[in-house]
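Hi C.,

You asked whether I'd gotten around to modeling the 592-residue construct. I have! Everything is below, sequence then structure, no commentary in between.
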Amino acid sequence: MRLQGMGASPGIVIGKAWLLNRERVDVQTRTIPAESVASEILRFDQALASSVEQLETVKKQFSDRIGESHSYILDSHILMLKDDMLTEGTRRVIRDERIMAEGALKKVLDKFIAIFNAIEDDYLKERQADVVHVAERILRNLAGHEQVTLADLKEDVIVVAHDLTPADTIQMDRQHVKGFATDLGGKTSHTVIMARSLEIPAVVGMRHITARVRTGDPLILDGDSGIVIVHPDSQTFNRYLEKQRRFIYFERELHKLALLPAETKDGCKLRLSANIETPDDVCGVLEHGADGVGLFRTEFLYLKRRELPSEAEQLEAYKSVIEMVHPEPVTIRTLDLGGDKLIGHIPYSGESNPSMGLRAIRLCLHHPKMFRTQLRALARAGVYGNLKIMFPMISGLRELRLAKEMFYRVCDELRKEGVPFQENIPLGSMIEVPSAAIVVDMIAAESDFLSIGTNDLIQYALAIDRVNEDVAYLYEPLHPAIMRMIRNVMTGAEAADIPAAMCGEVAGEPLYAAALLGLGLRDFSMNPVSVPRVKRVLREVTVEESKRLARQILQLSTAREIEEYTKAYMRARFPEALMWEGAENGNAGTEA
């Protein structure tokens, strides 16, 4: 049986399944008498305290293995357990509606889930899983269920589970847990991020693998292609055994590239930067040989809290990243959220189509006090290293000019106050909407640099919702319109004599690297783990052959034609590489 999911952490493992059978709590909303309210709140508080204690214990026991770079994930779960929206919210429901703690917690959790479901950004949307993991831990403690741990496994296994928490991943003994596959999960979940860091191959989003696999079943797990094979025949087993051997060799060779310069075979200097979500991600930037940070998303400072982050708090976060990466540059994107994602922070009247509404730079300009606080922190952080600032979702010159004007006013304020700040910080525009790509010559003339955000650009240009399963198949990075927009942006930046980068998911896909180089891209920014793979391609090609590839694909009529041509070209050019297989993933949850 061949099951298809999402390849989340690379690697090929062959072994026996171990099914994590974590009993789900049956949540009931039974009413309780008034005299039982106090004791029910006490029961909830005790389960809450036990949950905090358990996570603190895990963090302490495994801190040497996970290091500081990922301990923040457990810290964030612990903070959630102390968050008033969760704790006071549950107590309030117990008091006001007089129902059991389990039912009250479930009601509060449902409100959280509704908020996260409205978020379109894939990374932010998957933070919903963190809230669910925390709530389920409390529910298990309320029910008196044992908290199953993966720390005590005594044999080599591939863990199969409905879902795994970051605490589960931290407790995995790498000596015995060779890989894992889950029904739920996405590529940017905290569990997957940690799996990559611990180099544990993983496939997620398989929907029903727990219903198809039993403990002891022989499995093959391919974390690149997202395939899990149950009860493989001898021919399949031998084929994957050879593939595993090649993968291990290939990964060993990739690690050697970390310290080599990013340049083409004919000596064209390139920049391969990293995208990060929090200051703790910098360890991965340095480990994988990235040339600084090309996109530092600042949304983590604003989510899961009741008050807006202070200037001092933001300054500390930006300063820590800038200092760690110095002398390489750090490009920080100003707040890129929609009003629907900031409930509790600022007034929000509701929108029928948030992705087209008050979000990103529009939201910041609409709430100048919030924006000014962030700009002050950024200007002050610039003195600690090499900082660049970029504004998201610029659709035309008016927004860019308003954002720049506000930044210059902030600098004047700091100057008058005698507060140290960095003069002449480069200010850039993100090209994420078609209008910006069309008038890029005008935007480039008033920007210090450009950065193409392909995730939103593809969505808006092709008029598709990339998180809507019914139209997700239309999300085509190699659509002729996207290729032409990228070329147009590169031409506009060159004419204005300013650099242009790309920081969307497309920039980190090795399959596209040569074509993007041919379209004029010289500055790529991606997930840190993708840097060696993209560098592997770009160090083996010349600018001229990449230009020939780009000219050829620009003559093709459909995304499918471009994709097939590009795959054939790259396979012929790199016949020994394994990195094209991940680009062929089918839809998650299917089987053959």
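If it helps when you're writing up: Residues 5 and 587 are 7 Å apart (CA to CA).

Thanks,
B.
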